[in-house]
Specification:
The complex is a heterodimer of chains A (460) and B (405). Chain A is an alpha/beta fold. Chain A folds into three domains: 199 residues, 3-Layer(bba) Sandwich (FAD/NAD(P)-binding domain), CATH 3.50.50; 110 residues, FAD/NAD(P)-binding domain (3-Layer(bba) Sandwich), CATH 3.50.50; 108 residues, Enolase-like, domain 1 (2-Layer Sandwich). Chain A is built from 13 helices and 25 strands. In chain A, strands 3-2-1-7-20 form a five-stranded parallel β-sheet, with helices on one face. Chain A has a five-stranded parallel β-sheet with strand order 9-16-10-11-12. In chain A, helix 1 packs parallel to helix 8 and helix 3 crosses helix 4. Chain A starts with 5 loop residues before the first strand and ends in a 10-residue tail after the last helix. With 405 residues, chain B is of the alpha+beta class. Chain B folds into three domains: 98 residues, OB fold (Dihydrolipoamide Acetyltransferase, E2P); 51 residues, E3-binding domain (Dihydrolipoamide Transferase, Irregular); 218 residues, 2-Layer Sandwich (Chloramphenicol Acetyltransferase), CATH 3.30.559. Chain B is 29% helix and 25% strand. Chain B contains nine helices and 18 strands. Chain B is extended, with a radius of gyration of 29 Å. The N and C termini of chain B lie far apart (79 Å). The chains are: A alpha/beta (460), B alpha+beta (405). At the A-B interface, loops of A face helix 3 of B.
């Protein structure tokens, strides 16, 4: 029997650990190096902890609206420490789960920071151990982006990692950056009881999202009581005792808003800072490692995947890329496809989309747009979540579904149907003809499709 | 009405069946499930049973007859039915109609293309796009998950189909009905001869492009003379046959036959000329062409064409050629290859005369050019020999006056 192929994976986040498991399944001898916690950003400082906090906010919301359902709730209080503890419990349990999975697959997990020695060797900075292997996969992930301006380095100015480490709930928060991370933090702190202001440089929240959907989200957040200021260019943060004055210009006027804490949520940057990639001549651009559609870098035998290659920096994309890289590294050709990648915002209402936005679609196709509002969906009324809609974009020639955008209850779960469909090259006909269970939110998907294909049933 | 019993379709690929044996005689009584006749396809023999009680009123297709699927082979009369008005001389059109008809009384059609069509692994979008292109998805290979056909695969296949010179054999996915035309004797003969030509010889090809200026001029001056004297019009083909025969005389290896014992060199040149006739192909022969002038060749050719049209060929008119010439100028075909007309060893494919820019004494001039292609059996004729023949042919064509040399 031939020797097993040795593969070393640098980074145990959602790019790295699923790749490690896949490599082990494919018969490789796998070493996984993690400098911090298994599960990486997603599990420890991103997806999971923020969703845990968002859910706490949803519980608050449920209490607030309990009267609507005829349930009287005699007051509630937010114990922020307990909320954080719950979050930490969830994270810890999932992390232990990952450890268990890796152990079961006999994957060697090395704690430490990896540095490249040569194209087949990495050294653990902390212990000096040199690890030689046939293939190396870099999944070192990303770190929070920063903005440099006067006062941006103040002690009350927090990035997302620092926000998640807060032990005390701030009374007021100014969030700079109204992207996905910003709006989620906004709702968390608002619902847990803080006064929240979002400053977004562009004209709408969540730039890049379908405009109609983004506007709908903004309306919803404003209606809830979150202050949203768009077109706001932040100039300076002046730290005073217990408060921070954030100076910005909007509509050519100098203005300011104050908060106990300021959150900088201006995206994330690929992180290759500790890898010493120049030792092996890896090509990188703007900090992101350059790869081809097989996840191969310019150095034979070295692959990269996930946030560290830039592109779409989402957990599920990292996982897909990591698996693609491992396939190629172990001799099974795989070419990455970014055709139907869902992206989600876990606010209430949730936002989820796949494919082209209406604006993008118009540039390339002759399109039709179908919409179905949740207020016409029985199940949405039952759960008192009628804000939002499902919007389907098709091209007219063959009725291919080229974009689906949802704002509303459980949008992030509902989008999976559209992802499957678009992966299979569905046309609107299939979506309209598939029988959807009643009463469910998913009926809105069928109704939206029907509005493009013969007419919706529950719309005049 | 008597029950019509048709040749059943036993499988996807079955197009015809042969009646091997009638088990019931005309006029005999049959019970339901009695074996009426045995049929044979390329793959199986099959017993066809009576769908109900009755009398075998009329046998339409006799023993050993091969008929297309769906053709009525007999009529079964129910008790008390009047058989006198039974018209057995069905026009062919009506026979074809029965192919499409689903009759409960006929044996079941076992497989249908439509069912298979549903099972194809292709994305809904790919199916729609294929339909728009009238492209059969069975001819497309998929690159999606599990070999699924995606739109990109259909687009690729469509591009390939568009750019392919060879006409695709696939049937378009359309509503038009399929039509089966039974083989004629001539078609079968052509088929076996063409196949034999491809399979049994070492066919090789060689082309040369010739300046046809003089040949055109030569014909121009001959035309009024011959027409006035003999009442026939000399064609370029007539000139080509004569010139080719002259070149053959200088290269006897071209005028040979492959035999068991050796290569048979033939003394005389009998020129075959490939001719389309109705729905087939035939090669009438101009005998001893080297002894004939242009006028006689034109007269012979006209006579052969007339006989062909009137279906009056005698065996001698269409056999015994030693070399064949096939001309496609009338279709504007610039260059093509012909299948050797066995048992000959070579055939010449003569293309259209087309005005083209050519280099002449360092200048670009427009000249009428013609490309001729020799197909030769490399077993008998070496490439060098073929080349020498083609050189002679080219020289003769460019200087037709040397016929008088």
């Amino acid at each position: 029997m031939a020797d097993k192929i040795k593969i070393t994976i640098i980074g145990g986040g959602v790019g790295g650990y699923p790749a490690a498991i896949k490599a082990a399944r494919m018969g490789a001898d796998v070493t996984l190096i993690e400098q911090n916690f298994l599960g990486g950003t997603c599990l420890n400082w991103g997806c999971i902890p923020t969703k845990s906090l968002l859910h706490a906010g949803e519980v608050v919301q449920t209490m607030k609206e309990s009267k609507t359902f005829g349930i009287s709730c005699k007051g509630y209080s937010v114990d922020f420490k307990a909320v954080v503890k719950r979050k930490d419990t969830v994270v810890k349990q999932l992390r232990q789960g990952v450890e268990g999975l890796l152990k079961a697959k006999k994957i060697r997990v090395v704690q430490g920071t990896a540095e490249f020695v040569d194209a087949s060797t990495v050294q653990i900075k902390d212990t000096g151990e040199k690890i030689k292997s046939d293939k190396i996969l870099i999944t070192s992930g990303s770190r929070p982006g920063t903005l440099k301006f006067k006062g941006s380095d103040g002690s009350d100015v927090l990035n997302s990692d620092q926000v998640l480490a807060l032990k005390v709930l701030p009374k007021s928060v100014v969030i700079i950056g109204g992207g996905v991370i910003g709006v989620e933090f906004a709702q968390i702190f608002h619902r847990l009881g803080a006064k929240v202001t979002i400053l977004e440089l562009l004209e709408t929240l969540v730039p890049g999202t379908d405009k109609e959907i983004a506007q709908s989200l903004e309306q919803s957040m404003v209606a809830e009581g979150i202050e949203v200021i768009t077109g706001a260019g932040v100039k300076e943060i002046i730290q005073k005792k217990g408060t921070n004055k954030v100076l910005y210009t909007a509509a050519d006027q100098e203005k300011s808003v104050s908060g106990e804490k300021v959150i900088l949520s201006v995206g994330r940057k690929p992180d290759i800072s500790s890898l010493k990639v120049d030792n092996v001549g890896l090509v990188h651009e703007n900090g992101a490692i350059v790869v081809n559609d097989r996840m191969e870098t310019n150095v034979p035998g070295i692959y990269a995947a996930g946030d560290v290659i830039g592109g779409i920096m989402l957990a599920h994309v990292a996982t897909m890329e990591g698996e693609c890289a491992v396939s190629n590294a172990l001799g099974k050709e795989s070419i990455i496809s970014y055709k139907a990648i869902p992206s989600c915002i876990y606010t209430d209402p949730e936002v989820a989309s796949v494919g082209l936005t209406e604006e993008e679609a118009k540039e390339n196709y002759d399109i039709e747009v179908g919409r179905f509002p949740f207020y016409a969906c029985g199940k949405a009324l039952v759960i008192n979540r009628t804000h939002g809609m499902i919007k389907i974009i098709t091209e007219k020639e063959f009725d291919e579904v080229i974009g689906v955008h949802i704002i509303g209850p459980r949008a992030t779960d509902l989008i999976a149907e559209a992802v499957l469909g678009m992966t299979m090259e569905m046309t609107v006909e299939e979506l309209a003809h598939a029988v959807h269970p009643h009463p469910t939110l998913s009926e809105s998907m069928m109704e939206s499709a029907l509005s493009l294909y013969g007419g919706a049933i529950h719309m005049p | 009405m008597p029950v019509e019993i048709v040749m059943p379709k036993l499988g996807l690929t079955m197009t015809e069946g042969q009646i091997l044996e009638w088990k019931i005689k005309e006029g005999e009584e049959v019970k339901k499930d009695d074996v009426l006749f045995i049929l044979e396809t390329e793959k199986v023999t099959y017993e066809v049973e009576a769908p109900e009680d009755g009398i075998l009123a009329k046998i339409v297709s006799q023993n050993n007859e091969t008929v297309p699927v769906g053709t009525i082979v007999c009529y079964l009369a129910r008790e008390g039915e009047d058989l006198s008005d039974l018209d057995i001389a069905l026009p062919p059109a009506e026979q074809e109609e029965t192919i499409a008809r689903e009759d409960q009384t006929t044996p079941p059609v076992l497989d249908q293309v439509a069912q298979t069509g549903d099972r194809i692994k292709a994305s809904p979008l790919a199916k729609k796009v294929a339909k728009a292109y009238t492209l059969d998805l069975f001819t497309v290979s998929g690159t999606g998950p599990g070999g699924r056909i995606l739109r990109a695969d259909v687009e690729a296949a469509h591009e390939q189909k568009k750019s392919s010179v060879v006409k695709s054999e696939v049937q378009p996915v359309s509503a038009a009905e399929d039509r089966l035309v039974p083989f004629t004797g001539m078609r079968r003969a052509i088929a076996s001869k063409m196949l034999a030509s491809k399979v049994e010889t070492a066919q090789t090809y060689m082309s040369v492009t010739v300046d046809a200026t003089k040949i055109v001029e030569y014909r121009k001056s001959l035309l009024p003379v011959v027409e006035e004297k003999y009442g026939v019009r000399v064609t370029i083909t007539d000139l080509m046959m004569k010139i080719t025969a002259g070149a053959i005389k200088e290269h006897p290896v071209i005028n040979t036959r492959w035999t068991e014992k050796g290569i048979l060199y033939l003394g005389d040149v009998h020129m075959g000329m490939a001719m389309a006739l109705g729905e087939g192909l035939i090669v009438p022969v101009i005998r001893n062409i080297n002894n004939k002038g242009f006028a006689q060749i034109a007269i012979d050719r006209n006579e052969l064409i007339r006989k062909g049209k009137e279906n009056k060929f005698l065996p001698d008119d269409i056999s015994g050629s030693t070399f064949t010439l096939s001309a496609m100028g009338m279709f504007g075909i610039e260059q093509f290859t012909s299948n050797i007309n066995l048992p000959e060893n070579a055939i010449l494919a003569v293309g259209a005369i087309i005005d083209k820019p050519v280099a002449c004494n360092g200048e670009v001039v427009i000249r009428p050019m013609m490309t001729v292609t020799l197909s030769y059996d490399h077993r008998a004729i070496d490439g060098a020999e073929a080349g020498k023949f083609m050189r002679t042919l080219k020289l003769s064509m460019e200087n037709p006056i040397q016929i008088f040399a």
